[in-house]
Amino acid sequence: MAKVQIDQARVSVGGRFEREGSVLAGTIQAAVPEITSKLEIESRDDPRKVAAVLRAAENGCYAIQALRRPTPVRTEVTVNGTPFDLGA
Question: Residue 41 burial (CB < 10 Å; 0-12/13-18/19+)?
Fold first, then answer.
């Protein structure tokens, strides 16, 4: 990994969240159409070196990669200790 001096870093993450339908009618559906990440870096190093480290960090971030590449979600449910099929 490249050695880069980071003097200060600030990050904020947000998103746009939507939902439609009804819990009572069983039609509730949530969506997150956009996630925003704002990163502010203070560094005396060459901005190209800083950018390379930031790209590597983003490429190695499990959360970001799970959002960028659709990731299957496997859900296992038990009710009172017995496996339960939510689709039934």
Answer: middle
| CA–CA gap between residue 47 and residue 6 (Å, rounded) | 11
User: What span, in angstroms and rounded, lies between the C-alpha atoms of 21 and 70?
Assistant: 24
pTM: 0.70
Q: For residue 50, which of 12, 8, 81, 22 has the smallest C-alpha distance? A: 8
Which two three-digit tokens encode residue 31? 């969506």
Q: Two tokens at 61? A: 């971030």
Block residue for tokens 């859900």: 75
Report which residue type is found at 5.
Q
8-64, pLDDT tens digit by residue?
Answer: 999 999 999 999 999 999 999 999 999 999 999 999 999 999 999 999 999 999 999
17: closest CA among 30, 36, 27, 28?
Answer: 30
